[in-house]
Structure formats: C-alpha cells, structure tokens
Amino acid sequence: xxxxxxxxSPKRIPRFRSEDAERDFWAEHEVLDYFDWDRAxxxxxxxxxxxxxxxxxxxxxxxLEELKALANERDVPYQSLLKVFLAERVARxxxxxxxxxxxx
Length: 104
Known about the structure:
The structure is a single chain. This protein has helices spanning 19-28, 61-74, 78-103. It is mainly α. The chain folds into two domains: 8-41, no CATH class; 61-103. The relative contact order is 0.06.
C-alpha cells in the first residue's frame, strides 16, 4: 500500500442540487482531497450540558411493579417508559391549560 500524498491545495467542493446528489458525490470521492488541514480549527462546545438530570422519586411498590410489567410487555426499560408517560401527560396538561386560557 502506498502512502497517500497530501494535495498541495484542496479541490473545490461543488454546489449540490439536492442531498441525494451530495450523498452520491461523497460516495464516489475522498473527503481528504477537499479538506484543507491548514485551515482546520479544533471544535469547542462550551455550552453543552447533560440532557438529563438525575432525580430521586419514591413510588408505591405496586405502581412500580405495574410500570415494570407494562415496560416488559413493550420490551423497553421501565425508566424509559416512565419518561414517555410523563412527557405525554405534561404535553396533555399544557394543551389543556392553553385551551382553557383561550376560552377565558
């Protein structure tokens, strides 16, 4: 195998009519031929925060067992199912409150 030479100047990336055209182009071309390492800058993401927060929640055992049974029937982790249920209820409550305010 021969070592790949770095091009003296990168090729110009064409404009694409669609994502399909771009996808086809990159399937046939080497990105390194179009990338200028001299102009590269390291990426920084200072505002990233965890997307979830850990909480402690006390539930009655019977409720937890029912939740686990439902999750098992759906083949998903019970914590994930609980998040879905909570998100659905919050969305429903928000919609109900907006509708109620509009009626007033």
